[in-house]
Design goal:
Elements: E1 2-3, E2 18-24, H1 30-44, H2 49-69, E3 75-82, E4 85-92, E5 100-101, H3 114-121, E6 124-130, E7 133-141
Antiparallel strand pairs: 1-5, 2-3, 3-4, 4-7, 6-7
Helix pairs in contact: 1-2, 2-3
C-alpha cells in the first residue's frame, strides 16, 4: 500500500503557532541530534511526556529514512505546533518518488518497518515533491500535559 498526499496539513487557525527548524548533516550523529532536538523543543513547548516520546520516535524514523535515501546535501527537520496538533516535516534531496512504500510483510527482515511505526503513531502522513527533493511529513494529535 502506498500513501500519497499532496498538501502538508496545517494545524488549526486558533492559537499561536510554534515552529522550530534544524538542519542536519548526513553524518554519523544526524538521527541522534534530531531526536535530542525534538525532545528538547517539544518538552519546552509543554507537550506531555507521552506525546514527546511518540513524536521523537516519528522524527527518528523519518530522519533515518532521509539519511539512508539522500545522495548528498543536508536533511532538514521542522516542527510546527498549534492547538494540540504537531506536524513533523523532514526535507531531503532524495531522487526517489513521492510515493511512500509500506513495510515489508517479512518479519525476519531487520528493516522496512519505519513507515508502519509512523502510521501507528500519527493521524496522517504523506510526501511532497520539492525543487531539490522531497518533504515527508507526519501529523500528530498532542493531548494536553497532565
Amino acid at each position: 500500500m502506498k500513501t500519497i498526499i499532496d498538501v502538508t496539513p496545517a494545524p488549526s487557525q486558533n492559537g499561536s503557532p510554534r515552529s522550530s527548524h534544524l538542519s542536519l548533516d548526513q553524518g554519523l550523529h544526524a538521527v541522534r541530534s534530531a531526536r535530542h532536538f525534538a525532545d528538547e523543543v517539544l518538552t519546552s513547548w509543554g507537550m506531555s511526556r507521552v506525546a514527546v516520546e511518540d513524536a521523537v520516535m516519528v522524527v527518528s524514523e523519518l530522519v533515518t529514512n532521509a539519511c539512508l535515501h539522500t545522495l548528498n546535501g543536508p536533511v532538514g527537520l521542522r516542527l510546527l505546533s498549534r492547538d494540540r496538533q504537531l506536524v513533523i516535516e523532514v526535507t531531503a534531496t532524495c531522487p526517489e518518488t513521492t510515493e511512500l512504500s509500506m513495510p515489508w510483510s517479512d518479519t525476519e527482515c531487520d528493516h522496512g518497518r519505519g513507515l508502519a511505526i509512523v502510521r501507528a503513531l500519527t493521524c496522517a502522513f504523506g510526501c511532497n515533491r520539492t525543487p531539490d527533493g522531497k518533504t515527508v511529513w507526519a501529523q500528530m494529535n498532542t493531548p494536553p500535559c497532565g
